[in-house]
Design brief:
Elements lengths: L1 H22 L12 E9 L10 E4 L4 E3 L5 E6 L4 E6 L2 E7 L6 E5 L12 H16 L5 H12 L5 H17 L3 H14 L3 H13 L3 H10 L7 H17 L3 H17 L3 H18 L2 H18 L1 H17 L3 H21 L10 H14 L3 H18 L2 H18 L2 H61 L5 H42 L5 H15 L3 H20 L6 E2 H18 L4 E7 L9 E2 L5 H12 L6 E11 L2 E8 L4 H7 L2 H25 L3 E6 L9 E8 L2
Parallel strand pairs: 1-7, 9-11
Antiparallel strand pairs: 1-4, 2-3, 2-5, 5-6, 8-10, 11-12, 12-14, 13-14
């Protein structure tokens, strides 16, 4: 029955594809003949004056005009004919032979208002810009270095604007959005272009400045934009409204952009906007309309290229997953895997990409698991785990191994469950080592980027200073007041440069703190995990299957909650109390002959209003049980008490009447002392970083609980409200 359903679904997609192809026959398939972006420029022969507003047409129907610096970008294929038209010169016809930059020189042009410069300087500048563009997605440091080399040439304001716009593109691709904003602003200060303005608005959006992004988009005059730029303009405004959850306005903007794209045959944007409209309807809960637009985007993406088709298949599969349509999700992900195989013949897909085959196999296995088809889930999860291991994708390998452990536990395969749990432990250790390495690499990347940016800032300052010096020389006979004003201007420029550097360093410090927090959160001590699994093994060995299942269910629930909260700096206190309750319940289950426990929360405290770092309290409870109560002769007691301290502060007191810190220390081995010290240092570092970022939000003190032989321990955590 399942095979029959799959067959019909595949047949349905084929029919939809043929129908869509008939409706969009003007859009040619990219698979038939590879298209690419041609970069070129139009200038006057001899003077090299750039020509703006020159019409560039392709025999296939594409159309653009040159910008202020005479440059243009247009999609074409080898063999296409470009038609270059302008009232000031005779029409030129150029046949595309390769994807190299095209330089069109014209004669009988109007006198240039720009000074002619060395052709060697122009050639070198273009070479450096082309090199920077070539390395943009491969090597950020090298790409930025080429920008610096380009600015090191005797450049004019138009070239400086072009270089800084490309610099902004580099920073935007590598997600350095604050630096991208600065670069685009400098570009616009040199020469105002719609392209840089659109990119600045998008950079503001990516940086979280949504209101500023919308204001920047609205500053543009729609009548001055090319058809492609109009599409980007509508799309960008739609993205901003979607971020603000203003769904009706987002749909309206996307539909306007879709209309422009359809009227002017801008195929990629027709696909993108259909997909984005579907996303909005999906967020609104209008599944029917979302499906209609996703059907359009799927068929349109298939007509573009393999990668775009796979991306859309994965996107729609996620939509199906959210709506519990697991069978449709599985079909799409299997199609995506076939497409990925074709893509990987000519290119490499990075592990960060959402369209890797190991991610798709994991999602298929998870879909089968959610459909309660455990038998079919296992092969895909194992395939995902194997591919992730081969490609070094430890995040996916960790998830796949965890899921395999859960599936085998549900099937009663105890040996495999234990084996996968052991492997899970090894992957956790390996992933921790990788995270440490990534922090080091990120720090080195930041330093190298800072060095390259300092060079560009210096070159820009030198260029501005050289220009000021030239103007001072030319205006030597002017009054002393003008000279003083020029010097003040230079000083202000240096102050602005210093301010930008200070802002950059501050941003890098924040980024480093976030990386450090992520690393520290990933260092969860696996001691409890291993002991918990040993307890399950003991229950199974004694044929206490019901107890083992109950314990494993609670344990899985705790681990799932911990992993879900692992990316957050703070979670609601209510969630943390639930985690503590579950964790303490598990520990009590294992050591119920050693202690009882209680968790008391004052009724006046609104646990939804307070935020706390996830798993901050768990290590203190673990210490209380393992190093205090476990060694106590009589049965002890663990109490977690949460009470108000002031209007905006609460205290969380974790107290036990165990043997106390001094006696516990005497009983520990060197290894235990080292592990305990490492765990406490981890918490201290987390608290220190969080207090630096959030202004002393958390305070922790530790003291003896009572003046008896069993002194016990009392941990007092003070938490401030946001």
């Amino acid at each position: 029955m399942r095979i029959s359903k799959t067959y019909y679904i595949l047949l349905l997609f084929c029919l939809i594809g043929f129908l869509s192809f008939g409706q969009n026959r003007a859009i040619k398939s990219a698979d038939e003949k590879q298209s690419f972006t041609i970069r070129g420029s139009v200038s006057e022969k001899g003077t090299h004056k750039p020509y703006k507003n020159v019409e560039i047409l392709v025999n296939g129907g594409k159309y653009v005009t040159t910008s202020f610096d005479g440059s243009f970008n247009i999609q074409a294929k080898i063999g296409d004919e470009l038609i270059i038209k302008h009232p000031d010169f005779e029409t030129i016809y150029y046949t595309v032979k390769s994807n190299e930059r095209i330089s069109i020189e014209v004669v009988n042009a109007v006198e240039s208002r720009y000074k002619s410069r060395s052709q060697g300087d122009v050639k070198r500048f273009n070479q450096m810009i082309d090199s920077a563009d070539a390395y943009l997605k491969k090597d950020a440091e090298k790409s930025i270095k080429f920008i610096g080399d380009a600015l090191d040439v005797n450049v004019n304001t138009i070239q400086s604007a072009k270089a800084h716009e490309l610099l902004g593109d580099i920073y935007a691709y590598w997600k350095q959005h604050d630096l991208a904003i600065s670069a685009y602003k400098i570009s616009l200060q040199n020469t105002e272009t719609a392209s840089a303005k659109l990119k600045l608005a998008k950079a503001y959006l990516n940086n979280g400045n949504v209101e500023t992004s919308i204001e920047t988009y609205k500053e543009l005059d729609e009548s001055t934009l090319s058809n492609y730029e109009k599409t980007l303009w509508y799309e960008g405004i739609g993205d901003a409204y979607l971020t603000m959850k203003r769904y009706d306005e987002a749909i309206s903007s996307y539909e306007d952009g879709l209309q422009v794209a359809q009227n002017h045959l801008i195929a990629p944007k027709v696909t993108d906007l259909n997909s984005k409209i579907a996303e909005v309807y999906s967020e609104q809960g209008d599944t029917s309309k979302a499906k209609n637009y996703f059907t359009n985007s799927l068929s349109l993406a298939k007509q573009e290229n393999k990668k775009r088709a796979v991306e859309e298949q994965v996107k729609v599969a996620e939509f199906n997953s959210e709506n519990a349509e697991y069978e449709s999700e599985i079909v799409l992900r299997k199609l995506a895997i076939e497409g990925i195989k074709d893509i990987e013949v000519d290119s490499i897909i990075s592990n960060e990409s959402p369209i890797t085959s190991q991610k798709q196999n994991y999602k298929i296995g998870n879909a089968y698991l959610l459909s309660n088809d455990l038998t079919n889930a296992i092969p895909y999860l194992e395939k995902s785990r194997e591919e992730a291991g081969e490609r070094g994708d430890l995040d996916v390998k960790l998830d796949a191994t965890r899921k395999l452990s859960e599936v085998n536990a549900r099937l009663g395969n105890t040996e495999k469950t234990i084996a996968y749990n052991d492997e899970y432990k090894d992957v956790v250790d390996e992933l921790y080592a990788k995270k440490i390495q990534e922090i080091s690499q990120a720090a080195r990347f930041s330093r190298n980027i800072a060095e390259q940016q300092n060079r560009i800032t210096s070159l820009e300052s030198d260029r501005a200073l050289s220009k000021s010096t030239y103007e001072l020389t030319q205006e030597r006979n002017k009054s002393q007041q003008l000279i003083i004003y020029s010097l003040i201007g230079g000083l202000i420029l240096l102050l602005i440069t210093g301010f930008l550097m200070f802002k950059y360093i501050k941003q890098q410090r924040l980024a480093n703190n976030l990386l450090a927090l992520k690393s520290l959160r990933s260092q969860m001590n696996p001691h409890f995990i291993f002991n918990a699994l040993n307890s399950v093994n003991t229950f199974i060995a004694t044929n206490d299957e019901r107890t083992a299942n109950k314990y494993l269910s609670d344990f899985s629930q705790l681990m799932r909650a911990v992993l879900e909260n692992s990316e957050e700096d703070f979670i609601p206190l209510k969630k943390e109390i639930e985690l503590l309750n579950l964790y303490t319940k598990l520990e009590h289950f294992r050591f119920q002959d050693k202690f009882d426990y209680s968790i008391d929360v004052d009724d006046t405290i609104d646990v939804e209003e307070f935020q706390i770092p996830p798993m901050l309290l768990q290590p203190y409870i673990e210490n209380a049980v393992w190093h205090g109560l476990r060694y106590k002769t009589e049965k002890g007691h663990l109490n977690i008490n949460i009470q108000p301290k002031s209007k905006d502060e609460i205290t969380i007191i974790i107290s036990d009447d165990g043997i106390g810190r001094a006696r516990s220390k005497a009983l520990k081995t060197d290894h235990q002392k080292k592990q305990n010290s490492k765990g406490m240092n981890n918490i201290k570092k987390r608290v220190a970083i969080l207090n630096e970022m959030y202004k002393d939000k958390v305070d922790v003190t530790i003291e003896d609980f009572q003046e008896l032989e069993d002194a016990g321990t009392k941990v007092i955590v003070t938490l401030k409200k946001d």
